[in-house]
Design a protein that fits this description.
The chain is built from three helices and no strands. The protein is mainly α. It has one domain: DksA, coiled-coil domain (Four Helix Bundle (Hemerythrin (Met), subunit A)), CATH 1.20.120.
Length: about 80
Amino acid sequence: RAPAPDRALGRLTRTDSKQMQQMALEIKRRKSEQLQRVESAMERLRAGSYGDCCRCGKPIPQERMEVFPDAVLCVGCASSPRR
């Protein structure tokens, strides 16, 4: 006769399923945020303000833009508290 199913295994499977669902939702949220940043960068490009700091208006260094193409703040503004 086959052994009875292990109830703990059933709980583990439900827990795993819930964790997988939460991870999928987090991935979806991050992708949505990334898409919003890209669309915002494209709008700034069309408006002619791409590469300018949204806080102080100074140009964001090219090196920073190469690493973070969706950057909206220069290093100085990004590292200082908002005034």
